[in-house]
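FIELD: query
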Amino acid sequence: MSFRSLSAALAACCIASGLAACATNTPAEQAAAPLPPPPPSAFAEDLDSDGLFAFGKAGIDDISPAGRAALDRLAARLSSEQPLEVVHVIGHSDRIGNPRANLRLSTQRAEAVRGYLVEHGVPADRITAVGRGDVEPVVDCTSERGEVLIACLAPNRRVEVRVRFAD
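FIELD: result
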């Protein structure tokens, strides 16, 4: 075999070996599984006030079983390993009644939710609570009266929880 033939055979062998090596993936060369998405840095949750409290009520003892379950889920989410920057609890009311009384009721509801979250492990120094009364409605009901009006305005009776996690 000539030197030229030997060189060509060696080159062919090296190329074949290299291609075979490229085609075979070792565990270290296999693509890593995609990383899970990062947790959200913020979220907002609207709690149906009628689902939490009886109409016109604001005390913790007035919270329905379904409302307690919703607050328990929220408290567990806020007590996760991700550190909190701030939690804003904002109470809202409908337009039925005196505006000052509605502001007081919405504030009491926000404070009740704040207190509940603190009792369930959310750091008190990270939570604010404020009532906004009836100034930020999500629905307008203009022709309804009585019980129909109360039902129509239900979406306005809510507690918003706005959460921002620390970076």
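FIELD: remark
The two ends are 70 Å apart (CA to CA).
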